[in-house]
Design goal:
Length: 379
C-alpha cells in the first residue's frame, strides 16, 4: 500500500458483532473500512477500525433502495471497494443485483443461483443425501398433514431465510409439540420455504462448524473447525463460547457440500454430533461471515483477508489453524452463567467485543443495555 496506490476500501454491512471482527481484521492489514447500517447502535460502528459510518436503507424493508444507495455513493465510498454483507438479507440483496453492482464494487462470493441453492434447506438436504453426508431426519412441508403423521415429536420447523422468519414469528425455529401445532404453523409459514426436522438430542458442546474461504477456481484457501461450547439462548441460539478444534471428518464433509454447489467465498457449514448414530450431521450452510468469525481470524485463518485479497487480485492462503483458542461473547456468556455452571472461558481467549486498544464497541454494548434499547441482529 502506498499513498499513490492505496488498497481499495471495504464496505461492511450491517456492522454489529460480526462486522466488528471483519473491520478489525481488515483495518489491521491497512484497509480502510466503511460501516453501513440502518441502526447506529451496531457495535462495529463504534470501532476505531472504521473510518466512516453511514446510515443506509434496510435491505429487508427496501432492497432496491439499498442497492440504489450503493450505486449512488460508489464514488464517495471509493469505486472498486470490496463488499462484506454480514447477514442473509444483505447477501441476497447484493447477489440479486450483482450485475448492477459489479460495475462499481468487488463482490467476493457466489452468484445468486448458488446462494439461493445453499439457503434452500430442501435442496441442501437432498444434495447431502446424494453425497452420503448424514443429516437429521427431515421432511418437506409440501403436505403438512402427511408430515405431521410421520414425524417424531417434539419437532422443529426451519426456514430457508432466517430474518423474514424471525421478523414474522419472533423465533429462529418453531418447536411443534404435536401434529396439530405442526400443521397450523406450516400453513402460517407456507410462503417461507421451510422444512420440518426431528430434534436430535445434541450433547453439551456437540455443535461444530466448518469455516472456510473457497476461491473462484474451487481451491480451499483457508479452513477451520470450531466447536460451540455454549450458545445463547440455549439449544437454538448463537454461539457465545467457541473453541478451535479441528475434526477431519467435518472438514471432508463441509468441503464436499460446498464443492457440490460450486460455492465460492466465505461460509460456515454447521454440524451437530448425534450420540445415537455416532455421526456428525449436517445442519446448515451460511454463505457469509458469521458471529464468531473472530476465532478463526485469531487462530491464523483470516477469512475476511483471504476474501479481500482474492477480490483485489492478490490471492493469499492461510496456514494451518492453531487449535485451542476460545472465543467469547461477553454479554451472552455472562447471562448464561446466572443460571448454571458453564464450560470455562479459560486459557487463551479471544473477546468478541472488549479490546483495550479499541474500547468504543464495549462502551456501545453497555449503552445498548440502557434506555437507548438493544441492537437487533439475527447473528
Amino acid at each position: 500500500m502506498t499513498a499513490s496506490n492505496p488498497l481499495p476500501r471495504a464496505l461492511v454491512f450491517n456492522c454489529h458483532i460480526t462486522g466488528l471482527a471483519v473491520a478489525r481484521s481488515l483495518a489491521a492489514r491497512g484497509v480502510e473500512v466503511i460501516a453501513l447500517d440502518p441502526d447506529p447502535r451496531g457495535l462495529g460502528q463504534a470501532s476505531r477500525a472504521v473510518v466512516q459510518r453511514h446510515k443506509c436503507p434496510n435491505a429487508l424493508q427496501d432492497e432496491r433502495g439499498f442497492i440504489q444507495y450503493l450505486v449512488d455513493n460508489a464514488k464517495r465510498f471509493g469505486e472498486g471497494a470490496v463488499l462484506f454483507p454480514t447477514n442473509d438479507e444483505w447477501v441476497l440483496a447484493v447477489a440479486r443485483y450483482r450485475s448492477q453492482l459489479e460495475a462499481c464494487y468487488r463482490i467476493p462470493f457466489s452468484e445468486l443461483s448458488v446462494i439461493d441453492a445453499v439457503l434452500d434447506k430442501r435442496r441442501l438436504y437432498a444434495d447431502a443425501h446424494h453425497l452420503g453426508i448424514p443429516i437429521p431426519k427431515t421432511f418437506t412441508l409440501n403436505d403438512p398433514k402427511a408430515t405431521a403423521r410421520e414425524i417424531r415429536y417434539p419437532a422443529i420447523v426451519k426456514p430457508a431465510e432466517q430474518r423474514r422468519f424471525y421478523d414474522r414469528f419472533g423465533v429462529k425455529v418453531f418447536r411443534a409439540e404435536n401434529a396439530a401445532e405442526l400443521v397450523r404453523f406450516a400453513r402460517e409459514a407456507a410462503d417461507l420455504a421451510c422444512v420440518a426436522q426431528e430434534i436430535v438430542d445434541v450433547p453439551a458442546g456437540g455443535f461444530y462448524s466448518f469455516c472456510s474461504y473457497v476461491a473462484p477456481d474451487g481451491e480451499l484457501r483457508g479452513a477451520f473447525v470450531g466447536r460451540k461450547l455454549e450458545q445463547y439462548p440455549e439449544r437454538f441460539g448463537t454461539g457465545c463460547l467457541v473453541i478451535g478444534e479441528q475434526v477431519s471428518e467435518i472438514v471432508e464433509r463441509g468441503s464436499a457440500i460446498l464443492k457440490a454447489f460450486g460455492y465460492q467465498g466465505i461460509s460456515e457449514v454447521e454440524f451437530i454430533w448425534d450420540p445415537t448414530r455416532k455421526e456428525h450431521l449436517l445442519l446448515d450452510v451460511n454463505p457469509r461471515v458469521w458471529k464468531w468469525i473472530g476465532l478463526p481470524i485469531a487462530s491464523g485463518v483470516d477469512l475476511p483477508w483471504l476474501a479481500y485479497s482474492e477480490a483485489i487480485g492478490q490471492p493469499a492462503r492461510a496456514s494451518e489453524p492453531r487449535d485451542g483458542l476460545r472465543w467469547i461473547y461477553e454479554r451472552d456468556y455472562a447471562l448464561l452463567a446466572q443460571s448454571r455452571a458453564l464450560f470455562p472461558a479459560t486459557g487463551e481467549v479471544v473477546n468478541a467485543v472488549w479490546d483495550p486498544d479499541d474500547p468504543g464497541p464495549f462502551a456501545q454494548l453497555l449503552l445498548n443495555e440502557g434506555p437507548a434499547g438493544r441492537y437487533y441482529c439475527a447473528c
